[in-house]
Structure formats: C-alpha cells, structure tokens
Design brief:
Keywords: Cell membrane, Cytoplasm, Immunity, Inflammatory response, Innate immunity, Membrane, Receptor
Radius of gyration: 53 Å
Structural class: alpha/beta
Low-confidence stretches: 1-5, 12-18, 40-49, 62-84
Subunit structure: Homodimer.
Distance between the termini: 156 Å
Pfam families: TIR_2
Protein name: Toll/interleukin-1 receptor domain-containing adapter protein
Mean pLDDT: 75
GO molecular function: identical protein binding; Toll-like receptor 2 binding; Toll-like receptor 4 binding
Helix content: 25-40%
Number of strands: 5
Largest sheet: 5 strands, parallel
C-alpha cells in the first residue's frame, strides 16, 4: 500500500514578548491630555465664587448720586430763620423816648406807627414798663430791646433829666449805627436843638402830620436793612 505523502508539520507561531504587546496597545489607544499642575494660589482663588455681572450693582449714575442733606434751619418765631437774626431778634421796633408832660403826643405817635401797614412794635414807657421795676433798668432794657429810638424833643424833654439820660444812653449804645436814633423836634426852634445831636438830621414836627410819616419811613427803612 502506497504511503500517503507526508504533510509538512505546522509551523509554530512565534509569540511576542508581553512587553512589546503592552507597548503596541499604548500606541493604539488615544492619549489623555496631561494634567497641568494646580498651584495652591489658583486653588484658593477658584474656591471663592465671583459675583456675576447680573449680581453686581450698577455703577451710580447722575440720578442715583445722593447729595448731602442740607443742615436744618431753625425757624424764628415768625417762621423765617433770616428774620430771627434780623427784625425779630429784638422785642420792639421802636422805643419812644418822651417826657411825662408829652405823654399825649407820644401816644398819638405810637398809635400812628402801630396802625401802619408795617405793623411796627412800639415801646411806650408808661404802658409797657414792668410794674415795680427800677426806672433805670427799665429804660436801659427798653433801649437795648428796640431796633430804633425816637426822641420826642420838646421843651419838656430838655427839662426832664430822665429824657436826657435816655438820649445819652441811646447815643452810647450805638454811636455809629445810622438810622437807629431818630430825633423828632416839636415845639422848639432849630437853635434849641441839643448839641449832642448836632451830627444827626432831625425830623421837623411843624408839618401837618407833625413828622409822624417821616418817622415811620425812617424806621421802616432801617428794618429793611436787617432782612
């Protein structure tokens, strides 16, 4: 019997080492990006959440700027801070200085001034002085609490020592305040005008209204300088 041809023996496959196989897999797989080292400073800054643009308040515009509030103004008794430093800083607008025998003429002058449109506040000694008060204290207080002083200069005024005292007191308190002391000459000639008042113009009381209108205008003009 014929013998079958002998088949060649199968070649044995050579096995690659494991190290080379691992290198092949590493090359075939996609590489992961390398991690960058994180510094401690950047870690701390990332931990703090930054406010978004929607959370941040808008920058102040011209309408949102708050201007400082003005200081409060203290109103006077008649509702005006400027008036409290002016006319209403004293109790009276006019102090009428007269002799006792000229009381009737002084009352007429006061009635005219108080009933005018300006509503002048007048001090009349026998009407407004405190009962029981000392004469000297009352006279000095009336002069210091009045803006203007009207000296009703008559023959009785020149004979009365208290009227002369008031005249000198008024001149000593405000020697340079023009318009505050208003002499009203009545029943006397120009030659009898007191020498202490020669540097002042006087109101002549010989007119039809006895000089009352000029006195009112002089007082009102001075009060307007206070506002």
């Amino acid at each position: 019997m014929a013998s079958s041809p002998s088949l060649p023996a199968p070649r044995s496959r050579s096995k690659k080492p494991l190290g080379k196989m691992a290198d092949w897999f590493r090359q075939a797989l996609p590489r992961k990006p390398a991690k960058t080292p994180v510094s401690p400073e950047s870690t701390r800054s990332d931990d703090v959440s930054q406010p978004s643009s929607s959370d941040r308040p808008p920058p102040p515009g011209p309408s949102s700027e708050v201007s400082p509030a003005p200081p409060p103004t203290h109103l006077g008794a008649h509702g005006s801070s400027s008036s409290s430093r002016g006319r209403w800083s004293k109790d009276y607008d006019v102090c009428v200085c007269h002799s006792e025998e000229d009381l009737a003429a002084a009352q007429e002058l006061v009635s005219y001034l108080e009933s005018s449109a300006a509503g002048l506040r007048c001090f009349l000694q026998l009407r407004d002085a405190s009962p029981g008060g000392a004469i000297v204290s009352e006279l000095c207080q009336a002069l210091s609490n009045s803006h203007c002083r009207v000296l009703l200069i008559t023959p009785g005024f020149l004979r009365d020592p208290w009227c002369r005292y008031q005249m000198l007191q008024a001149l000593s308190e405000a020697p340079g305040a023009e318009g505050r002391t208003i002499p009203l000459l009545s029943g006397l000639s120009r030659a009898a005008y007191p020498a202490e008042l020669r540097f002042m113009y006087f109101v002549d009381g010989w007119g039809p209204d006895r000089g009352f209108r000029q006195v009112k205008e002089a007082v009102t003009r001075y009060l307007q300088t206070l506002s």
